[in-house]
Write a structure and sequence with these properties.
This protein is mostly helical and 288 residues long. It contains twelve helices and no strands. The longest helix is centred in the last third of the chain and has 39 residues.
Amino acid sequence: MALGTSIGGLIAARGKGEAARRPLVTLAGLKGLAARIVPPLVVVALFLLVWQVLCDRPGAGLPAPSRVMSEAWPIISDPFFDNGGTDKGLFWHIIASLQRVALGFALAVVAGVLLGTLVGQSEWAMRGLDPIFQVLRTIPPLAWLPLSLAAFRDGQPSAIFVIFITSIWPIIINTAVGIRNIPQDYRNVAAVLRLNAFEFFGKVMLPSAAPYIFTGLRIGVGLSWLAIVAAEMLIGGVGIGFFIWDAWNSSHISEIIVALVYVGVIGFVLDRVVAGIGQLVTRGTATA
């Protein structure tokens, strides 16, 4: 027994020594990292080069990248300034837009998951509500803005409503599809265990439909970000959409281009955040 223990200890110690000597950075790891980073960098560099060549000439409609950097450098170098009113840096405009998106999208998640569960679980509800949902989801986001302004008489809740009504449809549809695709075996086990409605919802429905739900959430958060930028162009106030429209009225095309870069990056980050949460919740079964 002592001999076995000593041999096992030696093997464990050798394993720990080999793990300690294993390099943290390997050639294969560096090659994999380069394979993910280099292609996008090359494409971006080529895009900037073509843009510079096409726009760096008299009479060009758009400024070249070098001109964008020189003209928009004040808002790039200092995104945190606040001179009061709407004269703020890009950081504050983005924060204001994200706050509206967070509230409108959160309301859409709650209502979308509940309505999607109802439609997916009840055949009667599906036949009654699905045609209405299919019609309403085709209405463009900005078409809802005049109606919301008439109802709320204020730009802030109107913008939040536009986000809500734009992002709720993919959540409802994907949740309903996920609920309808719950395996019958799961339902049989729940019946055997005599789970009540709340237990069945929390222990069977949501875990089974989670990959579908998070697919809807990713689509919904992207639509939310699109809707708020468009809505803020019309309601005014502080927000990235208002910043873009104000820059257009002031003929600051370089500032518009910089703002569009921020919009694209923030939209990508929002999608990655929702996808990452989906991977954690569904343990890798959601689409990355």
